[in-house]
Amino acid sequence: MAARRSRNDTQKNLDIFHGKFWPHGWIGPTIAPGSEGYAEKMAHLERVFQSANILKECCLNWRDGLISAPFTWHLKGQDGERADSETDTTAAEAEQQLQRWLDWVNEQAIAADPASTNFQQSDPWAEFVLSLGVLGEGSLRLWQPDRYADDPDPIHKIHLHAPKAGSVTIERSDKDGFIDEIRYSYGRTGDERHRMNGENTTISVASGDDDAPLAVASGGRWLIQHATGDSVFTPSVKRLQNALNHALTMMVRNSEIAGFREKVFANAEYPEDDVERGPGIDTYVYGVPTGDSSNPGYATVGVHESQPVDNASLEAAIETYRRLIYMQFSQGHLLSAGDGSLSGESRIQMRGQFELNLRGWQRRIESAIAALLNIVLRLLGYENYEVVVGLTITTGKLSAEERSQIISEYQAGLMSRATAIAKLGSVSDVDAELALMAEEADEQGAARDDDPELPRQPQPTEEPEDDDTK
Fold first, then answer.
1. 215 CB contacts (<8 Å, ≥6 apart)?
2. How many Å apart are CA 363 and CA 383, to the nearest integer?
3. What b/e sequence results for 62-100 when a residue is b if at least 16 CB atoms lie within 10 Å of its CB, and e otherwise?
4. What pairing do the DSSP bridges indicate for beta strands 168-172 and 2-3?
5. What share of the chain is helix, strand, coil (3-state, %, to 5)?
6. First and final CA of the chain: distance in angstroms?
7. Helix axis angle, 400-411 relative to 417-424, nearest 10°?
8. Using CA atoms, how far apart are residues 368 and 132, in angstroms rounded to an integer?
9. Which of 253, 280, 422, 433 has a CB 3.0–4.6 Å from the CB of 427, allowing a cystine?
10. What is the pLDDT of residue 349?
11. What is the pLDDT of residue 438?
């Protein structure tokens, strides 16, 4: 049983993301194919067609909320407890090597072939997340390029790639739905088939006609992690985007009418000779002759001039469609971040809804990343540890009112310092910031202890003794 999404749907969503709205994004009147002048009239319509890619704008906000801030990770031992790198030298070494590999991934992503991905993101993690959101499926693949096969540094042998949607096929068991095989197709003839080898917890990768598949001790995890979900480009937001494109095009047409008004002469004969035309020139034409030779006359000529409409209705329509798109992406708080149209409480509620929306995607993304990091850890020789990954969810810059509320709750003892720092978003590494604050507090305490002129506590004031002799 193969799991593959419609190539047509995938291509349509890709076209929308890259702003290719013509012709499927035009919902206004059109010309029937085969009619006279069809090609010329459609070319003119395409020339004036306008669009503003609000779907891409909202989708990038969605991506940034999930993966723009670096994800956090730590190791845990076989006992399920977090490994302490300060006391466990092996754990410290494993963390150092895994961080080296993550740095290597970022370094290689800069030089990656843009044609090998759909969205040309700056790193495979963002490419994977964006593919999952836009296309409803995303993959991450570990592989070893031939160029680095003999590299003495094992870090350099392990590369990460986010394949294009549609290049990964999942074969599942008809009985229980578990994955039997993952196939990755590339180029015209390239083909990788990944299968589990029973209890050996290895993966066989057969590339092309290779008679000797590569066995990789992956700890029972697939070298290709594939995640699926409903695309954020829902039919509803697509229709709203098309309606916005229509309103923008109508605004252009309205401006054209305002600058080049059309005149219709009723009951008038077109001049036989060429007449001078241009701005500021009045042209007179005769009306159509009526009656007969005994009673000649001319029909009254009526002149009808096209009039543009007020753009206010079109502007209101454009703003309405844009607002509805943002609301369907749970990003209404971003629309009113600077115009003061929402109260602080309303903005907090909208931001909270956006955060819940992001957290609905969090688990599947964390699972895919953690599985790959655990494979890398095993390949580097650290089998006694597992990686735990956490996405750093961000929902945009807080308003002054929201920041004040967080600080007030902390000062009232309703949340910890670590939670308050995390919610404020002023620093990326909360643990490191707390360590710095503790270090500064110790230094300030030591400075007070070493200063003889600074009393540790107020000295009691001596009161004069009573003089009984007075």
1. 197, 200, 202, 203, 204
2. 24
3. bbbbbbeeebebbbeeeeeeebebeebeebeebbebbee
4. antiparallel
5. 45, 15, 40
6. 111
7. 180
8. 12
9. 433
10. 86
11. 87
Look at residue 285 in the predicted model and tell me its pLDDT.
Answer: 61
What pLDDT does 3 receive? Answer: 41
Q: Quick check: 12 and 241 in contact, CB under 8 A? A: no
Q: What is the pLDDT of residue 1?
A: 39
Over the chain (470 residues), the average pLDDT of each successive run of 10 is 64 95 91 87 91 96 94 92 91 96 93 87 94 96 91 95 92 88 80 78 64 80 94 96 95 72 60 55 61 72 66 92 96 72 74 93 96 95 94 82 85 88 78 85 74 54 55
Q: What is the pLDDT of residue 280?
A: 47
Edge to edge, the sheet with strand 202-207 lists 2-3, 168-172, 179-186, 190-196, 202-207, 214-217
Residue 454: DSSP 8-state: S
What CA–CA distance (Å, rounded) separates 177 from 301?
A: 79
Q: How far apart are CA 243 and CA 25, in angstroms?
A: 8
8-state DSSP, 180: E
Decide if 374 contacts 219 (C-beta within 8 A): yes
pLDDT of residue 266: 61
Token output for 453: 């002129």
DSSP 8-state assignment for residue 95? H
**In this structure, are residues 387 and 219 in contact, taking their beta carbons and an 8 Å threshold?**
no
| Cα(365)–Cα(66) distance, integer angstroms | 9
Interatomic CA distance for residues 300 and 90, integer angstroms: 101
DSSP 120-159: --SSHHHHHHHHHHHHSEEEEEEE--GGGTT-SSHHHH-E
Q: Do residues 285 and 239 lie in contact, with contact meaning Cβ atoms separated by under 8 Å?
A: no
Neighbours of 424 (CB within 10 A): 15
DSSP state letters, 372-393? HHHHHHHHTT--S-EEEEE---
The number of C-alpha atoms within 13 Å of 28 and in the hemisphere containing its C-beta is 17
